[in-house]
């Protein structure tokens, strides 16, 4: 009986993870150095900025795939820094809404041009069609994994 072999560097799940970590590390360094933000904090700011009327921590977790502890810690750090405000959630008294403060809005507006410039540094050598194709493929991967139609014994 022969044992199946696998070259890790050619294994697509590994390649995806490796590249994601490289990009995430580059982004984390840039945001930490320029704005004192860790990646979870930046993600919370970015999602909250998309919802000017407020968004729940639960919705942030769903959108970012961060667990509730990570979202809670990031939100607390941002509230402590005066970048976010918590308000009661009229739709659910057990939760609250997060909104950018004036300082948070100013920070977001300062980050966006740098975020877009960093994106351009990383993906600038790709055509718009290649970028669109990459996004489409990533969304297809998301859909397959979220559908959960996978198992190790039935590839």
UniProtKB/TrEMBL annotation:
Entry-linked InterPro entries: HTH_MarR-typ, Metal_resp_HTH_trans_reg, Tscrpt_reg_MarR-type_CS, WH-like_DNA-bd_sf, WH_DNA-bd_sf
Start and end residues of each HTH marR-type domain: 1-143
MF GO annotations: DNA binding; DNA-binding transcription factor activity
Keywords: DNA-binding, Transcription, Transcription regulation
Gene3D superfamilies listed in its UniProt record: Winged helix-like DNA-binding domain superfamily/Winged helix DNA-binding domain
Organism domain of life: Bacteria
Name by which UniProt lists this protein: MarR family transcriptional regulator
Organism: Sphingobium lactosutens DS20
């Amino acid at each position: 009986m022969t044992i199946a072999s696998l070259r890790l560097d050619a294994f697509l799940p590994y390649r995806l993870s490796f590249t994601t970590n490289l990009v995430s590390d580059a982004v984390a360094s840039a945001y930490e150095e320029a704005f004192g933000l860790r990646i979870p904090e930046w993600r919370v700011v970015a999602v909250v900025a998309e919802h000017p009327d407020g968004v729940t921590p639960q919705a942030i977790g769903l959108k970012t795939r961060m667990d509730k502890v990570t979202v809670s810690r990031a939100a607390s750090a941002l509230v402590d820094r005066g970048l976010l405000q918590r308000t009661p959630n009229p739709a659910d008294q057990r939760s609250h809404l997060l909104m950018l403060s004036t300082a948070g809005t100013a920070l977001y507006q300062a980050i966006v041009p740098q975020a877009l410039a960093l994106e351009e540094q990383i993906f600038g050598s790709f055509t718009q069609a290649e970028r669109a194709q990459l996004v489409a493929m990533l969304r297809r991967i998301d859909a397959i994994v979220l559908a959960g139609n996978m198992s190790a014994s039935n590839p």
